[in-house]
Amino acid sequence: MRFMTQLDHIMFACADLQTGIDEIYELTGVMPAPGGSHPGVGTRNALLSLDNRQYLEIIAPDPAQDLTGTTGQLLHEHGGSGIRSWAIACDNLQRVADLAGNNGLVSREIIDMSRTTPDGIELAWQLLFLRDEHMPFFIDWQNSPHPAHSTPTGCQLSRFSISADNAKTYQSLLMDLNLQQPVSHGVNAFSAQLQTPKGEVTLTHW
């Protein structure tokens, strides 16, 4: 059975979307494009393509929503900016949940998500999260066009680094998912090196 997986996007969290956009533009020389709002989640985003069906998502609280108990509230209260998480694209979320279980990891329910782009295009996809929040989350874009194809270009992801206190389990899951992504043992953290019009840029953990 075909089973596609690859790094899909890196989530760069911040407490204010415009501040995050300005930070990434100053670092890279490429202006991220507004993405849209995530109803019920309390967030909105802007996007920057990294080529190869990959992108950087700048995610921040959405002031038009009630943030109580949402991810938007968490981002607002945390403050600062940096890499909060990363997503793996796949075409079989249930199989991912099964592989996670084989590695002793507990999955949450598969959830339906959607947003409308500034051009009025409706995007719909599914997400799967694991209870261990340092683990990646998983996205099935289904029939929606991939955001990397319609967002500003000029940057490429040259390296993504993961350290984890449960590196052995983390690495085992990624190997089961056919991903050649090394994981080092250490404090839970992420970093990413981007090739940009302004040279190499490093984004660090949130």
Notes on the protein architecture:
With 206 residues, the protein is α+β, with helices and mostly antiparallel strands. It has one domain: Roll (2,3-Dihydroxybiphenyl 1,2-Dioxygenase, domain 1). 19% of the residues lie in helices and 40% in strands. It has four helices and twelve strands. It has helices at residues 17-28, 71-78, 93-102, 167-176, and strands spanning 5-14, 33-38, 43-49, 55-61, 81-90, 111-116, 122-128, 137-140, 156-164, 183-185, 189-196, 199-203. The strands form two sheets. The chain has an eight-stranded mixed β-sheet. It has a four-stranded mixed β-sheet with strand order 10-9-11-12. A hairpin with an 8-residue loop joins strand 7 and strand 8. It starts with a strand and ends with a strand. The mean pLDDT is 94.
Q: What's the β-strand tally?
A: 12
Helical proportion, percent range: 10-25%
Top CATH class: Alpha Beta
CATH-derived architecture:
Roll
Name of the CATH superfamily: 2,3-Dihydroxybiphenyl 1,2-Dioxygenase, domain 1
Number of domains: 1
Mean pLDDT: 94
Major beta sheet, specifics?
8 strands, mixed
- Report how far apart the termini are: 37 Å
Question: Strand order across the biggest sheet?
Answer: 2-3-4-1-5-8-7-6
Strand proportion? 35-45%
SSE pattern, N- to C-terminal: EHEEEHEHEEEEHEEE
Predict the CATH topology.
Answer: 2,3-Dihydroxybiphenyl 1,2-Dioxygenase, domain 1
- The number of helical runs is 4
* Computed Rg: 16 Å
**Rough shape?**
globular
Q: What class do helices, strands and sheet pairing give?
A: alpha+beta
What are the segments in which pLDDT stays under 50 over at least 5 consecutive residues? none
